[in-house]
């Protein structure tokens, strides 16, 4: 297994590739093939995403083409499936566009949570991008910020006030909060900084503590807005950087960066 940092990719079309990307520190292995169905399984995700014996990432994103268009499948680092990732969608489309497999601009992508519209603008090198994702409806199911508010953004979340507990205690607290949900949940610990500014720490289902969560940023924005704590446009400061959420008619749009880290070559076919 080898990896290398990469610079400008040029305009050459590459029918398949494996790379590492991140969105505000939320990192993914991105694999795309021009032809054929999704092939990468949970065992491959666990092996590749391990930060000690593998490449290391929060998840494995696989992009593939169907007769209905471009599609995404996502495995968390522990091999479990995830319905949706806002940061992952930006990274996937930016990567595919940089290789000429999808057009730069706006693209509909099929996910396990439904079709999502992604808009990507690459810089001239093709190694960085800014993008937005129409994340769909945010369903807030009730609760309090003290005990946890359940919100669904294609995948489940629990939003709770950040009381400043040390990072070492967050995973256990998140496990307790997500435990009553049959499928588990991402848990966001939120602080209101201003009418247009939130900060979060996040424990993601299947990945643990991560530097950013796109769906989680949408969840906390919707919950805080519903409680009258913030406006409909809000910056969400994640540990790895800022993401921007706009709420309208019950739905959320997420905007933020995507950055290529490395091109990866692995032993054997994939």
The assigned structural class equals: alpha+beta
Taking strands numbered 1, 2, ... along the chain, how are they ordered across the largest sheet? 2-3-4-5-7-8-9-18
Rounded Rg: 18 Å
**Low-confidence stretches at least 5 residues in length (pLDDT < 50)?**
3-11
CATH topology name of the largest domain, in short, is Diaminopimelate Epimerase, Chain A, domain 1
Number of DSSP E strands: 18
Number of DSSP helical runs: 4
Shape: globular
Instruction: Assign the CATH architecture of the largest domain.
Output: Roll
Indicate the percent of residues in helices: 10-25%
Straight-line distance between termini: 12 Å
Secondary-structure element series? EEEHEEEHEEEEEEHEEEHEEE
Indicate the CATH class of the largest domain.
Answer: Alpha Beta
Within CATH, the superfamily of the largest domain carries the name: Diaminopimelate Epimerase, Chain A, domain 1
Write the layout of secondary structure elements.
Blueprint: E1 2-4, E2 16-23, E3 26-33, H1 42-49, E4 59-66, E5 69-76, E6 81-82, H2 86-98, E7 105-111, E8 114-122, E9 128-137, E10 139-144, E11 148-152, E12 156-161, H3 167-178, E13 186-194, E14 197-204, E15 208-210, H4 214-226, E16 233-238, E17 241-248, E18 251-265
């Amino acid at each position: 297994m080898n990896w290398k940092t990469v610079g400008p990719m040029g305009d050459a079309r590459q029918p398949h590739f494996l790379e590492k990307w991140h969105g505000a520190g939320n990192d993914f292995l991105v694999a795309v093939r021009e032809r054929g169905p999704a092939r990468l399984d949970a065992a491959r995700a666990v092996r590749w995403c391990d930060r000690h014996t593998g490449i290391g990432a929060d998840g494995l994103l696989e992009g593939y083409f169907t007769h209905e268009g471009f599609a995404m499948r996502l495995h968390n680092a522990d091999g479990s499936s995830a319905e949706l990732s806002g940061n992952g969608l930006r990274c996937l489309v930016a990567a595919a566009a940089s290789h000429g497999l999808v057009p730069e601009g706006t693209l509909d992508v099929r996910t396990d949570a439904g079709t999502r519209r992604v808009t990507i603008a690459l810089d001239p090198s093709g190694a960085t991008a800014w993008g937005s994702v129409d994340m769909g409806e945010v369903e807030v199911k009730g609760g309090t910020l003290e005990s946890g508010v359940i919100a669904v953004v294609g995948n489940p979340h629990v939003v709770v006030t950040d009381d400043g507990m040390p990072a070492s205690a967050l995973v256990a607290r998140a496990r307790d909060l997500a435990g009553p949900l049959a499928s588990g949940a991402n848990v966001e610990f939120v602080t209101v900084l201003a009418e247009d500014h939130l900060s979060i720490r996040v424990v993601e289902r299947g990945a643990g503590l991560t530097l950013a969560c796109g769906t989680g940023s949408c969840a906390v924005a919707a919950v805080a807005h519903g409680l009258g704590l913030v406006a409909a446009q809000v910056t969400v400061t994640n540990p790895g950087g800022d993401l921007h959420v706009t709420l309208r008619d019950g739905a959320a749009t997420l905007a933020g960066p995507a950055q290529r880290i490395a091109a990866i070559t692995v032993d054997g076919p994939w």
